[in-house]
Design brief:
The chain has helices at 2-12, 103-122; strands spanning 38-41, 45-50, 59-66, 69-84, 90-98. With 123 residues, the protein is α+β, with helices and mostly antiparallel strands.
Length: 123
């Protein structure tokens, strides 16, 4: 009977390393990547829409793709406003300030802003 219990335990417990119960609280963090729609952008920051509220003054890494290249820049959450998304769900509009921006990305943003200004002039 001892052998039968040992065999059953080995089949049911697939952990390769020992685990320990935590007594009390142990804090930790979890980093995740979310693709969020961008509402607008300027040389100083961007406005994104998210179903998750981000704390004001928190710092994150934002990655933008421009001209086939990915650019990562640290951003600070400056304001959060509750909104209703197009599908009727609650969402948040989050204002981000660029803390530093790659010079090539600055050039792309300037081009985008010029295109919008040019298109608005034609309308």
């Amino acid at each position: 009977m001892h052998d039968e219990t040992l065999v059953r335990r080995k089949l049911g417990d697939r952990r390769g390393k020992p685990r320990f119960d935590i007594v009390g609280e142990l804090s930790g963090t979890l980093e995740t990547v979310l693709r969020l729609p961008m509402q607008d952008i300027s040389s100083g920051g961007a406005l994104i829409q998210s179903h998750m509220r981000l704390p004001e003054e928190s710092i994150h890494k934002l990655t933008l793709t421009a001209g086939g290249q990915d650019f990562s820049t640290p951003v600070k959450v400056r304001h959060v406003r509750e909104a209703t998304s197009a599908d009727g769900e609650r969402s948040f509009l989050i204002g981000l300030e660029f803390l530093s921006v790659h010079p090539v990305l600055v050039g792309h943003i300037a081009e985008w802003m010029e295109m919008v200004t040019h298109e608005a002039g034609e309308a």
